[in-house]
Amino acid sequence: MPIIVDRNTVLLVQGITGREGSYHTEVMLKYGTRIEAGTSPGKGGMNVSGVPVYNTVKEAIDKHPNINTSIVFVPAPFACDAVYEAIDAGIKRIVVITEGIPLHDELKLISYAKLKGVIIVGPNCPGVISPGERVKVGIMPERSFKPGYIGIVSRSGTLTYEISEALSLAGFGQSTVVGIGGDPITGLDFIDVVEMFFNDVDTMGVVVVGEIGGDAEERLASYIKSVGLRKPIIAFIAGKTAPPGKRMGHAGAIISMGMGSAESKIKAFESVGIPVASTPMQIVELARLKFRWGV
Known about the structure:
The structure is a single chain. The protein is α/β, with parallel strands linked by helices. It folds into two domains: about 110 residues, NAD(P)-binding Rossmann-like Domain (Rossmann fold, 3-Layer(aba) Sandwich); about 150 residues, Succinyl-CoA synthetase domains (Rossmann fold), CATH 3.40.50. It has nine helices and 14 strands. The strands form two sheets. The chain has a seven-stranded mixed β-sheet. The relative contact order is 0.12.
């Protein structure tokens, strides 16, 4: 089975009446995602693309007890409260699309989620898609993906789409694609998702799309050193030409005091047998070398 989202996913959309929430609700429904309800305080009784809207998560869960996943399109000042509400209502998988949540709020939120045994994808992420199941919980353009056996995990949104589409066109489809988000603090990290892919029978190889800033890639390399390459992994690191001290794109992409450089991440990956592509398109060449079940 794919990881995180599959045909058993039953979705709640928090912030469903906003511009982004309403648009992506329609897109996710057309793709095949099962959306049972949405929430928007003060707008209970409405519907969006045929999806009933409730004032609170509890009301939605009471009416639709099969809901097991939430996606959050709530503006940053209110996003944490929305996630806490979903956690306290018993939802165990939450994808947080919202960007701009303060760092300390993210820390507290993610700590609380872990305490409650809740999976958080994000914040500031494009979500998760499992092409073979026709399930998408997020904002990824579905044209970039096709069913297959590669698991992709990425800190970058647009590079996720670009690399996935190139692989799809070359005959390498995906089991699940996970955008973990570009903030310094995220719920799931590379280690969490790669471990899920290692344990997933439908995933035969893994693509890691990293970028400058932080130490997520180095920590993944340390994890691989301890457990071994249980499945082939290839990677790309964005930001090789980024100047130190300048934020590139989003909060997590910054090199500071020599830490988080592309060079350190590439060295860490190569030291544990993970080849790193020089360009996004070279990922296809590495896939042909490492993923021999493809075209």
